Amino acid sequence: MITANLPQRIQINDVAVRDGFQSEPAFVPTEEKIKLIDRLSCTGLAKIEVTSFVSPKAIPNLRDAAEVMQGITRVPGVTYVALVPNERGCERAQAAAVDEINLVMSIGESHNLANMRMTCEQSLEQFRGVMKLVRGSAMRVNGTVATAFGCPFDGEQPLYRVLWAAEQYLGMGMHSITLADTTGMAHPRQVEQVTRAFRNAFPDVPLTLHFHNTRGMGLANALAGAAAGALSFDASLGGIGGCPFAPGATGNICTEDLVHMFDACGIATGVDLDALLTVARDLPAIVGHEVPGQVMRSGKRTELYARPAA
Amino acid sequence: MITANLPQRIQINDVAVRDGFQSEPAFVPTEEKIKLIDRLSCTGLAKIEVTSFVSPKAIPNLRDAAEVMQGITRVPGVTYVALVPNERGCERAQAAAVDEINLVMSIGESHNLANMRMTCEQSLEQFRGVMKLVRGSAMRVNGTVATAFGCPFDGEQPLYRVLWAAEQYLGMGMHSITLADTTGMAHPRQVEQVTRAFRNAFPDVPLTLHFHNTRGMGLANALAGAAAGALSFDASLGGIGGCPFAPGATGNICTEDLVHMFDACGIATGVDLDALLTVARDLPAIVGHEVPGQVMRSGKRTELYARPAA
Q1: Total domain count for chain B?
Q2: In this protein, which residues make up the domain named Pyruvate carboxyltransferase (chains A, B) (predicted)?
Q3: Which one is catalytic: B151, B243, B254, B265?
């Protein structure tokens, strides 16, 4: 039985402003980003990944990382996260006083080479440098195990490699771990197995699951993850974004669709779904195109229609 | 734990030619329908809902029901199903020698009125007439409990009403039951509860679950249904179709995406996914527009890409 095992309370994190806007064809103006983050801050999300302190040449869409961090109004209780690729990025993140940085390595060597232009060993070496900078500061560090559920070049990753990466991260002092299905290869049985193995290996480590809907299984995977005891989920407003370097990869799971499903199942997310839907419905105007989210179009399952005249 | 409860083998039924083509803006030529059914017949699907013996005025797209039935090449082991609204339809279905007819009533009274222009009691009366015609013939009868997981006008339906409808159907001699989420209101916890209740009440009755992906939960619902012991699932090639009378309702779950998920989870469907994908990829050309299926675009999760040059 699935639903007997579902947790009573989970947390939802939004990555749209970073993961979504990063791969938009057009630059989203800084003030639009700030306005969106400020609106998201009031919906009950646990974390918002607001930007990435990467080279503006690598990702021009996020060249305004410092301005975004400076411009937003921080809501107590919300963790503002920035992705950081290296020590230089970490210093910029520290200067911007982000609450948490996110370090990402793909355990698929070929994907890490394609995406980060580094071997996994080189990524870990970078991370060690970052952790030295962070030591003693209040800034928290989340380590993302990308391609945890499969690499589009190297295929499914063995479980020990997921646990190996997590162990490396935790050994450096990272505070929490995200297992990311970077190119949408995860399936429910695998999600359940990996999640349970992770929780058995690291019962006290905060775990986030990050799914893509590339093959339509995104919410099924989230359900399987929750049933296996995961308590934190990444998603992207409107379902925008995805990994721009992964062939065929489209779409993070959609935040409001995810909240809608968990709400329906009686799992508290702390998110005000109506408020979130209001924000989501303004997203197409911001990015200039339709977005994959479905509940923003169909309405919530509890929204009834007037009976047709007889 | 979900996946420990998943069945080893399930069956998949396709409804695209009936439920999908019925609501297409353009009439799909009879020979295209026949060709598509014949291709689907060779993929390992258990049932194919090929047409509806309704009034050509009500659904002009399916005015060629008899020609379609006559034109197809029946593959042994595949059950060819036609939807039938009344005795006249039943006689036409008998003349066409369909293997199984499908009778549909929405348990949401308002939806049944809007969709069928009948009260539930009037629908059941029609069904009694149909069952009299069928008695003694080899033709099987499936009863669909539509809006089983919620009516867009009347809201969530109480469990007893689902069981009441099933009991009415079975009392008339119907052979199998489909619980249909006609407008995409089901959620996983509800699916599990309803499926378990049904199986407890009618342990020997073949049960099919029919989901829509209106709010993105389609495959999550199928997973929950399978974990609760459902062994038969409807879906639509490419995810086409939906209920044309239901406001905001779009999209059956996609057959090849469903098979892909179950395959990945190690559940045998009997369907040749590669063959099915080949057929699905020809669907946009047949209907003249893109379709919602995702695996047809992304490829299977096991399809790897060449490593980028270093």
Answers
A1: 1
A2: 10-277
A3: B243
Question: What pLDDT is stored for residue B310 in this prediction?
Answer: 62
Residue A310 within a domain: no
If you measure CA to CA, which chain B residue comes closest to A246? Answer: B305
Residue in chain A lying closest to B260 (CA): A215
Q: Band of the pLDDT at A249, cuts 50, 70, 90? A: very low
Report the amino acid identity of residue A6. Answer: L
pLDDT digits (tens, 9 = 90+) for A86-106: 999 999 999 999 999 999 999
Task: Give the gap in angstroms from C-alpha A174 to the nearest C-alpha of chain B.
Answer: 29
The reported pLDDT for the residue numbered A308 is 83
In a domain, A307, yes or no: no
DSSP type of residue B175: -
- Residues in contact with B295: Cβ distance below 8 Å, sequence separation at least 6, in sequence order: A215, A216, B254, B256, B257, B260, B277
For the question of residue A243 being annotated catalytic, the response is yes
Cβ <8 Å between A265 and B188: yes
Residue B79 lies in a domain: yes
Residue in B215, B247, B294 nearest the CB of A301: B215
CATH number for B16? 3.20.20.70
Question: Which chain B residue's Cα is nearest to A294?
Answer: B215
Q: How is residue A304 written in tokens?
A: 């009834």
- Under a CB-based contact definition with an 8 Å cutoff, are residues B184 and B213 in contact? yes
Residues spanned by the domain of B61: 9-298
Residue B256 maps to a domain: yes
Chain A, chain B: beta-carbon pairs less than 8 Å apart: 192
Whether residue B192 and residue A228 make contact (CB cut-off 8 A), yes or no, is no
pLDDT along chain B (310 residues), means of 10: 83 97 94 98 98 96 98 98 97 98 97 94 98 96 98 95 98 98 96 98 98 96 97 97 54 96 98 98 94 92 87
